[in-house]
Amino acid sequence: MGKVSGVVTLDGVPVPNASVMFIPAAGGRPASGITDASGHFQLKTFEKDDGALLGEHKVTVTCVETTGFQETADGLSGGVSPEGIKQTWITPQKYSLPETSGLTQTVEKRNPEVKLELTSK
């Protein structure tokens, strides 16, 4: 395992609440993490912050905002708003699939901070 942390930006701006996934090219369990308010993440495969399996990985980044739910006071129930449910891709959809993201990363025992610099084009 290699500890992996990094930052996700879109056109130079940090992306909060994005899901980052490292998928081993040789097979095995993927590692994942969620970015904080400043776009930083740490990966987990089996335990908190344990990193990712060593080797080559395809990388995905997904950030979608879903609106249209009505919350009740308990926060647990509610219906759909009259406008319906809407999903807005914060990161371009191409980054959500390993086949189209174009992002790869090699994980070693010691890793520098990963910079995932996405573009809206």
Brief characterization of the structure:
This protein is an all-beta fold and 121 residues long. The chain has strands at 5-10, 13-14, 19-24, 31-34, 40-42, 55-62, 64-67, 86-89, 103-107, 114-118. Helix content is 0%, strand content 39%.
Fold and architecture overview:
The chain has 121 residues and is mainly beta. The protein has a single domain (5-111), classed as Immunoglobulin-like (Sandwich), CATH 2.60.40. Helix content is 0%, strand content 39%. Strands 1, 2, 5 and 10 form a four-stranded mixed sheet that branches. Strands 4-3-6-9 form a four-stranded antiparallel sheet, with no helix packed on it. Strand 3 (19-24) and strand 4 (31-34) form a beta hairpin. The radius of gyration is 16 Å and the shape is globular. The protein starts with a strand and ends with a strand. The mean pLDDT is 92.
Secondary structure layout:
Layout (H helix, E strand, L loop, with lengths): L4 E6 L2 E2 L4 E6 L6 E4 L5 E3 L12 E8 L1 E4 L18 E4 L13 E5 L6 E5 L3
Parallel strand pairs: 1-10
Antiparallel strand pairs: 1-2, 1-5, 3-4, 3-6, 6-9, 7-8
